[in-house]
Amino acid sequence: MKTILLTPNPQLICKGTDLCEAMRYSGCRTDENEMLRALCKECISELVGKITPKAVCTTAEVTVEGDKIDFGFFSTESKSLRIFLGERRKVGIFAATLGVGADMLISRYSLINPSRAVMLDGSAGAMIECLCDKVTAEHFGAKPQERFSPGYGDLPLQIQSTLLNMLDANLKIGLTLSESLMLLPTKSVTAIVPIE
Amino acid sequence: MDILSKINSSLLYFDGAMGTELQKHGLKAGELPEELSLSAPDIIESIHLSYLDAGCDVIKTNTFGLNSLKIQGERLPVLADAALTCAENAIKKAGGKKRYIALDIGPLGKILKPFGDLPFEEAVSLFAEIIRLGEGRADCILLETMNDAYETKAAVLAAKENSSLPVFVTNVYDEKEKLMTGADALSMIALLEGLGVDALGLNCSLGPKKMNEVLKTFAKYSSLPLIISPNAGLPRTENGKTVYDISPEEFAKEMKEAVLTGAHGLGGCCGTNPDYIRALIETTSDMAPQPLSKKDHCLVSSYTHAVEFSDSPVVIGERINPTGKKRVKEALKEGDLAFILREGVYQQQAGAAMLDVNCGLPEIREKEVLRNVVENLQAVCDAPLQIDTGDKDALEAALRIYNGKAVINSVNGKEESMHSVFPLVKKYGGVVVALTLDEKGIPETAEERVRIAEKIIETAKNYGIDEKNIIVDTLTMAISTDINAADITLKAIRELHKKGIRTVLGVSNISFGLPHRDYVNSRFFAKALAEGLSAAIMNPHSENMNNTLRNYKSESICDEYITFAKDLTDEVMAMEGITPAPADNSHIDLKSAIESGLCEESGKLAKTLLTDAPPLSVINEYIVPALDKVGSGFEEGKVYLPSLLMSAEAAKAAFDAVKDVLLTQGESNTAKEKIVIATVKGDIHDIGKNIVKILLENYGYKVVDLGKDVSPEIILNTAKEEGARLVALSALMTTTVPAMEETVKLIHESLPNTKVMVGGAVLSREYADMISADFYSKDAMGAVRIAEKLFNKN
Question: Counting CB atoms within 10 angstroms of each CB, which of B235, B279, B507, B666 has the fewest?
Answer without folding.
Answer: B666
